[in-house]
Structures are given as C-alpha cells and as structure tokens.
Amino acid sequence: MTISEPMLDITPVGRDLVVDVSQVFRTFDQDTAPVRALRGADLDVVRGAFVAVMGPSGCGKSTLLNIVAGLDVPDEGEVSVAGQALVGKTESELAIMRRKHIGIVFQFFNLLEGMTALENVLMPALIAGRKRKAAETRARDLLDLLGIGDKAKQSPAALSGGQRQRLAIARALANEPTLLLADEPTGALDSEGGEEVLELFARLHSGGQTILLVTHDQPVADAAQRIVHMKDGRVSDDGRPAASE
To answer: What is the mean pLDDT of the chain?
Structure first.
C-alpha cells in the first residue's frame, strides 16, 4: 500500500486556492517596544502544492503559519483557508475549521506522552466526532503507511526522534486535512531523522496532499516545489519565475 492510494483521499481537485493571505499585519506588544511581526504579508497556495516559507529568525514566518492555522489572528488583512474566511470567526468556529481542514506538525512533536502511539493518532478523529471503529482503522492504516505500525502500543517516549515525528505526521493526517502545516518539522531531529521526514513529505505531496511548511534551513526548503522567501515581516520573493518582459 502506498500513500497515494485512495484511502487517504488527498488527490487534488482543480487548481483552486487552499490558502489565500492578503496584506496581513500583526504586531505583538512587548514591555520594551512593539514587535511588528508581519507588515503586509501576502501568500497563496493552490491545491496539491508543496510550498516552503523560508527566512531568518524573526522574519515572521511562524507568525504567518499560526495565522493560516487559525491559532492567531491578524490586526489587518484577509485570510482564507479552503475557501473559508478566517478573519472575524470566533474561537470555536476556528477550532471547527482546523478539525475539518488543517493538520499541524510541530517542531517539538507536541505528542501526548501518557497515551500510546495509536491513541495519539486516534484523539483528533474522536474529538472531531468520528466513530471509534472507523477512526481506529484509519489510525492503524496511517501508522502502517508511515512505517511505525509496530509501535502502535508504545508510548511516544519509547520512540526515536524520527519515529516521534512520523507519529506527529500521522496524527496531523488523522482527519484527512485539506492542508498540512509544518513548523520547522526537522528542527528537533538529527540528519537521518530529518531526511526521513522530508521523504515522507515528498511522498505525501506526490499523493496530492497540499503542504505548507516554514523553515530557516535551505535543504529542508529544497524539498518543496516552490520556495517563498520572507524578510522583515513580508514576502520578498514568492518563488515564482519572474514575468517575461
């Protein structure tokens, strides 16, 4: 079985926008001085694309990812994911949107250590209201597809770094998200574990999964089909070829 099989239901349909960010501003209040994290950022991601947002620390890339995920809200600008406008939604509405459309892979995994690997993948589906039998079948399939099916009964603490990130990816895919977001997904891994995770992203993308990741690491960004560069809170290069004159 491969990740591109219909079980995952991630085949792209059309070329519609999954992410549409327009002129987004975000400032954080600090004791010393306000931090202008985003200063008119624009970004679009079409269905089925694999896009990396790259830039130095403090350029605003993680803030942009959090806004796309509905974990933060902009001070100004417009954001839509899978055709849904996020600005103006309540916290509960944003939570429902995330459960339906977004899977998130964090740098430091954010796994539930008191649960087994299988239970970690099950949890998002159960929260979303899926029946346990169907959710467990999908969870086991995902663990198998990501090469850790034999770890289903183990605690995340018993897994290697690469296996823990595979588990985090499986959990992010539990609800068949429209969009997979990743924040420095190889940052906590050694080189071997990082290569394994990038290979998984490439396989998911080849199966049609829309992926948006942020990184400061060029080799990680190179795994994507399009690299967007950020500087000083805005996109400085959107990764598209320059228009011919």
So the answer is: 88
